[in-house]
Amino acid sequence: MGRRDRDYDGANPRQFTHNSTSNLFPVWAPDNSKLAFVSYRTGKPEVNIHSYLDGSRLPFPLFNSFATTPAISTDGTQLLFALRTPRGDTDIFISKLDGSDRRNVTNHPAIDVSPAWSPSGKQFAFVSSRDGASQVYIADADGANVRRIVKEGGDADSPAWSPDGRWVAFHWKPRQSVNYDIFLAEVGTGNTLQVTSNSGSNESPYWSADSRHLTFQSNRTGSSQIYIMLADGSELRLVTTQGTNTSPSWSGYFR
């Protein structure tokens, strides 16, 4: 499954990776010069960082473990990612882009994955099973002051922090629900807003640079495709139609 980029309206698709394996969880550097993603090219998940200018692969260590869900910091110098620990769980680690100065910033026996930087770089959101089901949490960049942002139950995943700092978007399946939908949690208050409501599952939200739009994947038509909408759920547009398309990520060019 190759990684592709395209214009915000779905036009001009360009394939970025050329291998026969799965490539998932793409995320742009703030200056759009690099793309980080997870590849299974060696048979297990590993973080890859590629130059967007020439497609060359930048060095990043394998750590002799499973690494996934990378997130590049707002200043483009650090990476958050989930790494399997000797305990068998996964924690959130931070390192420089070359993998040096690696530190465990969650260090909890639960499963911690899917980090997302705040625009200030002082906090990050992540997903943890520490209270049972997967839920979204916020912590300081050093892992201190962990707090859960949605108190209700159910399963949540894929947090994405809005560039204006006000909201964390995520997909959530509340108790008694069958499918996932996209929700927004206001960081300051914890108030939530549901912005999709459809018979299919709506997942993996990602913000545009102006904080006005969200892109996400949905199987509402049968196969998984990419959609764009305003952050309040209005003006929905389908931007892919062929094959199976997942894990959208937005470059910083759209404003």
Structure description:
The protein has a four-stranded antiparallel beta sheet with strand order 3-4-5-6, with no helix packed on it. The model is unreliable at 1-7 (pLDDT under 50). The protein has strands spanning 4-5, 14-15, 23-28, 34-39, 46-51, 57-58, 67-72, 78-84, 90-96, 103-104, 112-117, 123-128, 135-140, 147-148, 155-161, 167-173, 181-186, 192-194, 202-207, 213-218, 225-230, 237-238. Strand 16 and strand 17 (181-186) form a beta hairpin. It has a single domain (4-238), classed as Neuraminidase (6 Propeller). With 255 residues, the chain is mostly beta strands. The protein is built from no helices and 22 strands.
Chart the SSEs and their pairings.
Blueprint: E1 4-5, E2 14-15, E3 23-28, E4 34-39, E5 46-51, E6 57-58, E7 67-72, E8 78-84, E9 90-96, E10 103-104, E11 112-117, E12 123-128, E13 135-140, E14 147-148, E15 155-161, E16 167-173, E17 181-186, E18 192-194, E19 202-207, E20 213-218, E21 225-230, E22 237-238
Antiparallel strand pairs: 1-2, 3-4, 4-5, 5-6, 7-8, 8-9, 9-10, 11-12, 12-13, 13-14, 15-16, 16-17, 17-18, 19-20, 20-21, 21-22
Which structural traits does this protein have?
255 residues, mainly beta, Neuraminidase, four-stranded antiparallel sheet, 0% helix, globular
Brief overview:
The protein is mainly β and 255 residues long. Helices cover 0% and strands 43% of the residues. Strand 13 and strand 14 form a beta hairpin.
